[in-house]
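not sure who needs this but someone in the group chat was asking about Low-density lipoprotein receptor-related protein 1B from Mizuhopecten yessoensis so here u go. i didnt clean anything up, its just raw.
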Amino acid sequence: MLLYSGLVVILIASVNTEDVFISRSDGIYHVVLRNNAITSSNRVLKSSNGEIIALAIDTHDSLLFWYDSSTGKDGIYKGNVIGDGVTSTTVVVNYPEMYVTGLAVDWVIKHLYWTDSFHSFVTVSDYSGNNRVVAVTSKLMLPRGITVDPINRSLYIGDQGAHQIMKCAMDGLFSCTHISPAVWPNQLFASTRNVSWTDGWSNKFVSCSSELSNCYAIAVNTQRLNNGNMTSLFGMVKTDSGQIVSILNDLITISLRDNSTSERTGVGNTYYIMSTSTTTQPTRQTNPCTNNNMGCSQLCFSDSSDRYRCSCSSLSTTVIATDGKSCSLPSRTTKFLLYAEEGRGQIGLVSTTLKGHTVIAWSPKPRALAYDPLDKMVYFSDTKYQTISKVGLNGSSLAVFLSKENNIGNVEAMTLDLKQRRLYFINRFEWEVNNTTRSMARIEMAGLTTNERVLIRHTEDSISDIEIIHHQTAS
């Protein structure tokens, strides 16, 4: 057993040198292992008042990505790995109420993926955080771990809320097909043949084929390791020497070559682990998007058959032009339709004449929509949060207009009176009486710029829609 700077590491396989980065509650540590001994362990980044949880690394470009939840520093950061340190740190992604619990990089075409447990979506951008596209929202409840296999163009997501692992295509459409049960998946790791993860509920290391079949598990007695106290498996990564796995208060190593384990206790409060070895990120297969981005003005994706697709950034009001590659603002003559897609949690615009669409906001269960062309604001309801929110056409100025505290239930239809600057909506409530569901629907009005709030009609019958009719008289 080797103790160094509060970390305990047990090695099974003899290796020459192994470098890893480890996220802990107080920062990021760089640990060098050589011939079964720790030769150095240094804290290279400090978290001021939060936690650094998620990590990702591009071993070929020597770039490290991490999420810092510290107040005032909340965001995804990027830094250059030089020797045993990280320099030139910059924030690349920051938006309101973000909580990133997983990071992954496509080291072939230089895309950054992350899971957001607060907003329940997976997003992809370039390494600078630009050209962000919402990749997956459908069926996600509490996404955490994420990993990619760029060689086979596969994305894997661990959902602690839905208790499953999802496999999705990295082709720009991100359809998710294969699903494997997992009670509390934490960090994931994918190779060209397998995907593996730690389950924090069952305290097992699980490994499956790339199709999420032919799985096997190795149980780890974390209670025995932690002096009788129950703790959970967390981070894991494939290294040249086997598998390094962390538990919440320990760092241990598990070898899978003969399905044996070696377990020891320690200290550290560790989360994610990333190896700096380039062998963990193979590049032996080409990708068409590496050829000058195939002319795409923003993001380029390709499927396993090397067919590529260009995508435009969400929250940008840009759409794919007729050439299928350029992202441009629509002209004044371009007609758009607003849509709310409850399954993917998206509020977006789709052109009636151009290809593609753009997302302007995310919400768990969006339902009703109304557009104010004077202020260029979109009003939308959410039946999970029981809110009415508003957002600009370019995704800016997102704010809650009315909430549950304002006696908002499930708003299922809305319309605007542009002359009087008023919003009319159907506000529906449900409750249980003697195991019977009762409901009430109310037609209400709220002023857009005033504190007006008027109840117009209420009934226990269903009201499905509402619309303003303006009568014009002949001059």
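also The chain has two domains: 20-280, 332-459. if thats useful
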